[in-house]
Design a protein that fits this description.
- The chain is an alpha+beta fold.
- The chain contains 5 helices and 11 strands.
- The longest helix is centred in the first third of the chain and has 11 residues.
- The protein is globular.
- It binds 4-(methylsulfanyl)-2-oxobutanoic acid (KMT) and nickel (II) ion (NI).
- Nickel (II) ion binds next to loops.
Length: 172
């Protein structure tokens, strides 16, 4: 895992966009983003039972697996959004970038690879992209039914309960 401020320069979203300004785990924690390196599946089972995650599935994001819709999917994942539930991703292979909004509403880019697990709190604005390898294999964990409808960023979402709880806990 490596986290840094996004450079905001034009260019493909899959490029590193590393500004050279690193972001540490403590700073991520202050916006509710939790990171764990978990080399054994047993570690994920433990975390899942502690947090009440009963279900999981796996997704491979790549042109080989997705065919013609790959490019479209990658663009959709990169649309800034929030969820009304936590988003937990455990990387099983390949790499990807999660971008999350800092306290100042700038992008922090979190680079994940195999055995990295990231928890994004409900209500945080974020986006995802594959990197130049165009391959990531991830496990998605959830409580009951998959409930990760992306709500695209827009001013009215300020009124959303989950957004308000997030702002209250982490941004004020
Ligand atoms: C997401 O939430 O953007 C995804 O599920 C993308 C694939 S998982 C790394
Ligand atoms: Ni999401």
């Amino acid at each position: 895992m490596k986290a840094y401020m996004y450079d905001n320069l034009p260019g493909d979203q899959r490029l590193p966009h590393d500004s050279g300004r690193a972001v540490d785990l403590d700073t991520l924690g202050k916006i509710g983003v939790l990171y764990y390196h978990i080399p054994e599946l047993a570690g994920v089972d433990k975390l899942a039972s502690e947090r009440g995650y009963k279900n999981r599935d796996e997704i491979t994001v790549s042109p080989e697996k997705m065919g013609a819709v790959y490019e479209e999917k990658v663009k959709t994942f990169f649309d800034e959004h929030l969820h009304e539930d936590e988003e937990i991703r455990y990387i099983r292979g390949g790499q990807g970038y999660f971008d999350v909004r800092s306290k100042d509403d700038d992008w922090v880019r979190v680079q994940l690879e195999k055995d990295d697990l990231l928890i994004l709190p409900a209500g945080i604005y974020h986006r995802f992209t594959t990197d130049e390898s165009n391959y990531v294999h991830a496990m998605r964990l959830f409580k009951d039914e998959p409930k990760w409808t992306p709500l695209s960023r827009r001013p009215e979402l300020d009124e959303n309960q989950h957004r308000q709880s997030y702002v209250k806990e982490f941004l004020t």
